[in-house]
Amino acid sequence: MEVVELQGSTLQVCIYCGLCQEACPVDAIVEGPNFEFATETREELLYDKEKLLENGDRWETEIAENLRSESLNC
């Protein structure tokens, strides 16, 4: 079993390797089509619980479709 220690919810250190997604035992971490690399300020890359929930709501349909297609390809 892989163990990934999260250093908060900051995207400024994320290298999009997918290890956190693979290690999450409840599939709570998913990569989706919502890569927002360009920001005006560094603070925009810091995600608190509210911002994470808003982001999940925004992309929920597409993420669900991606997860379904991934499970079919396994």
UniProtKB/TrEMBL annotation:
Belongs to the complex I 23 kDa subunit family. GO terms for molecular function: 4 iron, 4 sulfur cluster binding; metal ion binding; NADH dehydrogenase activity. This is 4Fe-4S ferredoxin-type domain-containing protein. One of its GO terms (biological process) is mitochondrial electron transport, NADH to ubiquinone. The keyword Cytoplasm does not apply. InterPro entries: 4Fe4S_Fe-S-bd, 4Fe4S_Fe_S_CS, NADH_quinone_OxRdtase_chainI. PROSITE patterns: 4FE4S_FER_1 (PS00198), 4FE4S_FER_2 (PS51379). Residues 4-34 form the 4Fe-4S ferredoxin-type domain. Keywords: 4Fe-4S, Iron, Iron-sulfur, Metal-binding, Translocase.
